[in-house]
Design brief:
The protein has a single domain, classed as Thiol Ester Dehydrase, Chain A, CATH 3.10.129. Helices cover 17% and strands 40% of the residues. It is built from 3 helices and 9 strands; from the N terminus they run βαββββββββαα. A 5-stranded antiparallel sheet has the order 1-5-6-7-4. Strands 2-3-8-9 form a 4-stranded antiparallel sheet, with no helix packed on it. The two termini are 23 Å apart.
Length: 149
């Protein structure tokens, strides 16, 4: 059962502003990249077909608190934790760290809530139960793990 996932990357030049600091909007991209990698690690995709149904994961809430800037060439680690799993939605908590050196430095804390939807033939999205094969692999993180540190 999975409740944690770590995604590592280097801050690219195209993600930064004139001062070489990653633009705030990229923190949302980092969280989304991590969510996608987490789902892939479980053998699924955020856009997948199962038993003839096409599933997707639109976000219904996203937020981020910034603690430290990350800069061009910084290595970052994005820790995903499953904060809550419901029948049709998952709330993720993200801790974004500057990596390397002796200690990780907390650069941001974010939350994304994604709802499972089934795509109807007419293109309309309708909330749906998380497919059992995926739901069975995901559990909620222990409360102590959810606090950034």
């Amino acid at each position: 059962m999975a409740w944690q996932f770590i995604f590592k990357k280097r801050v690219e030049f195209c993600e930064t502003d004139m001062a070489g600091i990653a633009h705030f909007s990229n923190f949302f991209r980092y969280m989304e990249m991590t969510e996608h990698a987490f789902i892939r690690s479980l053998g699924y995709s955020v856009h997948t077909e199962i038993d003839g149904y096409r599933y997707g994961w639109p976000r219904v809430r996203a937020e981020c608190d910034y603690r430290q800037p990350v800069r061009f060439e910084d290595e970052i680690e994005v820790e995903l934790l499953v904060a809550e799993k419901k029948e049709k939605a998952i709330e993720y908590r993200f801790h974004i760290y500057k990596a390397g050196g002796e200690a990780r430095i907390l650069a941001g804390v974010g939350t994304i809530v994604s709802v499972c939807v089934a795509m109807q033939d007419d293109g309309v999205m309708k909330s749906a139960k998380i497919p059992a094969g995926l739901a069975d692999q995901i559990e909620t993180a222990p409360a102590a793990a959810l606090s950034a540190g």
